[in-house]
Amino acid sequence: MIEIKKLNYKYNKQTETQALVNINLEISRKEFILLCGRSGCGKSSLTKVINSLIPNYYENGVLEGEIYIDNKASKSCNLYEVSQIVSSVFQNPKTQFFNTNTTNELLFYLENRGFNRAYMREKLAETAKIFKIEHLFNKNIFDLSGGEKQLLAIAGAYASGTEIIILDEPSSNLDVEKTILLGQILAKLKMLGKTIIIAEHRFYFIKNLIDKVYYLKNGEILFELSKETFITMDDDVRKNLGLRAINLERLKHLDSDFKTKSSKQLQIQNMYHVFRNEKKVLNINNLKINFGNIVGIYGVNGIGKSTFIKIIMGLNNSKVKISINGNSLSSKKRLKKSYIVMQDVNFQLFTHSVDIEVSLGKCSKYNSLDVIKVLKMLNIYHLRDKHPMSLSGGQKQRVAIASAILSGSEIICFDEPTSGMDYDNMMRISNLIKSTINDNILIFIISHDHEFLNNTVDKILDMNKFNFEL
Amino acid sequence: MNLYAKSKFNPTPLSKLFVTVFLSVCISFNTSALFSFALVAFISVFCMLNSKSKLAIKSITIYLLLNILSFDFILSSYDFLKNYVLFLVIVAKFFYLPFLGGIFFVATSDVSSIIVSLEKVKLPKTIIIPLSVIFRYFPTFKEDRKSIKDAMKMRGITFKNPIRYLEYVSVPTIISATNIIDDISISAETKCISDPCKKERFFDVKYTLIDFIFISFVILIQIFGILYD
């Protein structure tokens, strides 16, 4: 079905770094292939070669070698010709749709291929039956949750009827429940005889589906594993390879208590927030948390984790009384004391050098020596003259953390800091957070990542407990 | 943005686009105040018919306010601040109609209906695809904008220093725009949007009486407005 011979690729003529090195690969019909490896190992690039975004969309790169899909040399094909055989599902549910109407989106591929309405109607009914998504038809895509969007994307890939379906980290924005559901849908696709290629960091939802695993390092396929060897892999070997847990870890710290070493205490009273369009409220009567704690905020998508954080930070004007050591704080004062490192850090980098970036809104109690100290601690001192946008994702995240510390924030929040991260990077951010905490700081982490939470937090707040039906 | 409401009163995207372009051309002519107001009211009625009452009320109120302000300020003295405000008010009034037409277009059309209606008049793909990608960008950006706003609040960047504000806001905005447009284009391309075959769209868009009424009334009011100035 897919044959790749002696493939080399780099994204830019000028760069030395090869994104893919000497790839030789053969995938037969109906196989379920997992591509894994550390962030930046080339697994994503490899999916782009197969769906022909390389070289058709990324035009500046240098591609050597041969690629045959269904016995056709895909290098000489247009993107739309390859897309007639290969469908793609991407990572970000927000931007992988072209239409704003769900039904339109499902049929968009068929429309573009020139199929007639009768056929589309038939396909629509069939897709509805298989994926049970009739309730999602004819809706505004922006009203769908992340999980529903990903479900729609996969249903769309099925409706297009292509033999091969490629998925690039489809679970990275989903909670555990939705990820498991995603696994069930992929099982259906496999049963229907599709050839599936998936690049992922999380394995628990597909571990029973895979036929073959390819491990990539620095753009090279280092080795190939069978399903059995992969799922019975030793934990130390797995960590050495930079891979995430193969089974879903049980969440610890759900019933543990807050640390009470610090005398400084945050008190939340009478938090009451009504969710628009839904008959739900977020209600917290009285919650006391001592500073010096790392608190995990846990719950399914849409339960109100971000809302909870935003209310504490003073970014949301819902009714609440928040005090530190008995002194009640207005939302304005809270905003001055708090900082959030967003899931997409690109939204919070504003200036043209790291140096200026971290000093923007700096607290007056820090001087330039402190700036250097913090930059060194976070290992971004050597990047201080660089443009923040030119850095890698992890480095950007550290710049944001430096800004948080230097702004004198006492409440630091992280929104999904490890989405799409390999084991090494996950541990790095976990250790970083643990080294940032002191008796004057309180850290909240919104996360679905069990392995990360177990490694990092002192206590998990299950948001389910604060959520009530109206 | 909502779905393309299949209401009887929703003109096709092409008609709305035409009206917007027509109104932009006409700003170079003097139009009598009464007829300008009639145009604002006419488009507002269309907003209302397409369940955008909030937009309709807003557009009429703001237009009245602009008129009152400009009338009031003309009588005033050589105060710099007042003249500055007057200048802004007049500029806003000047571009009001095409702007309103554009907003009506964006608020009541969706991407697929735009593609269909442009394909019907046989516009080349090289125009339709970029146009629809741009159009698709706005609702996505709306979501990102909230996050950018929050991030700026957190850093204490406010509009008190407008030049700084604009400098800072431009960085994440441009980055998010390139990312969004890249992703949307990729999703369209992998769904064969460039396939040259003949296409049949699932939801059809038909030109009806309402298009005729919408376009002809706008043209008539505008022309009479220019003649009777």
The number of domains of chain B is 2
Note the gap between the termini of chain B: 37 Å
Q: Helical stretch count of chain A?
A: 16
Strand order of the largest sheet of chain A: 6-7-8-3-9-10
Which chain pair has the greatest contact? Answer: A-B, 64 and 51 residues
- Number of DSSP-assigned strands of chain A: 20
Tell me the major beta sheet of chain B.
none
The total of helices of chain B stands at 9
Uncertain segments of chain A: none
Distance between the termini of chain A: 53 Å
**Share in β-strands of chain B:** under 5%
Question: What is the succession of H and E elements of chain B?
Answer: HHHHHHHHH
Please state the overall shape of chain A, judged from the principal axes of the Cα atoms: globular
Helix content of chain A: 25-40%
Structure description:
The complex is a heterodimer of chains A (470) and B (229). By secondary structure, chain A is an alpha/beta fold. Chain A has helices spanning 43-50, 53-56, 79-82, 102-113, 117-131, 146-159, 176-191, 227-231, 235-240, 305-313, 331-337, 354-359, 368-377, 393-406, 423-436, 450-456; strands at residues 2-10, 20-27, 32-37, 62-69, 72-73, 86-89, 164-168, 195-199, 212-217, 220-226, 265-274, 280-290, 294-298, 319-324, 327-328, 338-341, 411-415, 442-446, 459-462, 467-469. A 6-stranded mixed β-sheet of chain A has the order 6-7-8-3-9-10, sandwiched between helices. Chain A has a 5-stranded antiparallel β-sheet with strand order 15-14-11-12-20, with helices on one face. A 5-stranded parallel β-sheet of chain A has the order 16-17-18-13-19, with helices on both faces. The N and C termini of chain A lie far apart (53 Å). With 229 residues, chain B is mainly α. Chain B folds into 2 domains: 3-112 and 206-227, no CATH class; 124-190, no CATH class. Helix content of chain B is 73%, strand content 0%. Chain B contains 9 helices and no strands. The longest helix of chain B is centred in the middle third of the chain and has 30 residues, at 125-154. Chain B is flat. The two termini of chain B are 37 Å apart. Classes of the chains: A alpha/beta (470), B mainly alpha (229). At the A-B interface, β6, α4 and β16 of A face α7 and α8 of B.
